[in-house]
Amino acid sequence: MTAERKAEDITAVRMVINWLGLGLFALLGVAAVVPLFFIIGDVYIKGIDAINSLGGLRHFLIELPPTPYDESGGIGPMLVGTLYMTALGALLGIAVGFPLGVYIGEMRKEKFANVARAGVNVLVEFPTIVIGLFVYAVMSLAKEDLNQYLLGPLSNAISPLGEWITWFIGPLDGFNAYAGAAALALIMIPYVALITASAYASIEQPLREAAYATAGREFNALFVVLRKAVSRAVLTAALLGTAKIAGETAPLLFTALGNLYYAPFTGPTAAVPLWVWYAAQTPYEVQIASAYGAAAVLLTIILIIFIVARIRG
Amino acid sequence: MLGFLLVVLLIPYLIAAYGLLFVKLRWGLRLFGAFIVATIALLTAMFLVEAYPIIARDGIAVFLEARWDPVRESYGVLQALVGTVLTSAVAMALAMPMAIGVAVTINEILPARLRGIFGSLVDLTATMPTVIFGLWGLFVLGPFLKDAVNSVSKSLVGDEVMTSPYTLFTAGVLLAIMITPYAAAVIREGYALVPKPVEEAIYAVGATKFEAALIKLRYVRNYILGGFFLALGRAMGETVAVAMVVGGNFSRFTTNIFESGITISSLIALQFPNAAAYQYMVPALFAGALLLTLFGLAINAVAIYIIQRGQI
Lengths: 313, 312
Hints:
The structure holds 2 protein chains of 2 kinds. By secondary structure, chain A is an all-alpha fold. Chain A has one domain (about 55-310): Orthogonal Bundle (MetI-like fold), CATH 1.10.3720.10. Chain A is about 75% helix and about 0% strand. Chain A is built from 10 helices and no strands. Chain A has helices at about 1-55, 55-60, 75-105, 110-125, 130-160, 175-200, 205-215, 220-245, 270-280, 285-310. In chain A, helix 3 runs antiparallel to helix 8 and helix 4 crosses helix 6 (about 175-200). Chain A is flat. By secondary structure, chain B is mainly alpha-helical. Chain B has 2 domains: about 1-60; about 70-310, MetI-like fold (Orthogonal Bundle). Chain B is built from 13 helices and 2 strands; from the N terminus they run H-H-H-E-E-H-H-H-H-H-H-H-H-H-H. In chain B, a hairpin with a 4-residue loop joins strand 1 and strand 2. In chain B, helix 1 packs antiparallel against helix 2 and helix 12 runs antiparallel to helix 13 (about 280-310). Chain B starts with a helix and ends with a helix. The mean pLDDT of chain B is about 90.
């Protein structure tokens, strides 16, 4: 009788510990995502207010940013710069990241593929500011000769095409949109490569053999037949990577630098995250408000990409 | 000239790599692999070259002294190094329990329908732009932490320990929120790999869910350690959000986490815009970047080694 009672007591104690322990884990897990709601709420509540007080959404999306003495303004140049640099960076990132991912995912028996995989693993974790600084250093080394031997003559040759071309091609400043895009691409490449690699690695062996047997060439097997098996994962990786680089600030600090006006992409270029970073730290109410508005716009872009990626993926 | 060649040759290199994909697939793929390895080698070499002037002038002292006085051209990054260590320590202490909590919550507690949504929320935290975390830290978290810490410290020691909303502690807490998803992702990956027979054995001896979770966590301890190091690498390198809330105190050396400080990455972000005006500041900042790079390489090497050794 007493032994049974004792066993019951122990069971009861273990049940209590069970609930307490699981409760603690759940509490910790929930604590990790609660700030997300606070942040999104804060950005939208203050951001929508700010956009309305600065002249409405349409105005906000195309106008120049407010100076400390203005009452209204927008983030037009920043939006253009962000879209341009993100598009270029994402294209380059996918163009290099995808074949790289195929290499480290499919050729795992090669020694060099393992070296490359370690390199990708290191690069994906690199501090983004270090990547920005690297592109800045390359740019400052290359700029003068590049302008003298290549871009100067080139822009003279294509100038008859019209004024608009000088906005895209021409002698580069030390800070320009292309350096920014290069830095963003360097962040995107390892990200896309890793997800592509794990998608290719998860293809089952019989499917792989069937692909090689029917495709004729290895190229067709890898890039035509097997690509269909992983296209979903790769598309998700591309979208999430784009969302990630659209919001990056640190790599743009010394490459795009930021600008307040609509300006040629060959010179300092504005970006939404750079404006949030700059304006939030000024002492002027109107600029802080525009930082919140810009943050709301940026967050909307990223949420849309994220949700599309989740639904498609 | 070297940089010119580098940039100009990059384009034919990529075209060649693509061309080779069609002709000799494996060599084409190898060129892409070589690209990434060369990038990392070049990055390290570039920072060594750029940082050389200050290392030649001061030797190793640039890493061991805590003076940042541009007017006297004297630079030491020790205070930033200590700041990086302190913020990372605060962040890791808070983030690891949360990351483990996330892994257990998703795998053991939530019903199957909610797992995907909860996982998406965690992933979204990782995708959020860091500058938005910084904005929130600047106007919401910083003031909130100041009030909270001060009301606690008043009742404990009768003094306000946190004099400014922007301190190393604020940066650490903000970092914890930002890096939890990275550690959680690795732990989740390991947790999902616990073999079914092991799980069945755990329940067969009559373990409760909580006891099962503890046993499984011990089983995946390599992943927890690997996630720890990966998250640590993120915490040390994070720039913008930290720079916005850390206080930007370059000059005074402090080990008190409730005071304003600086970290290496935020030192670079905040000082680089004025660096060109001084002779040795650019090399000093590149020395900081070199230090970050070496830390990054070392931490990642350890993390990758641990995860691969423990591959179940």
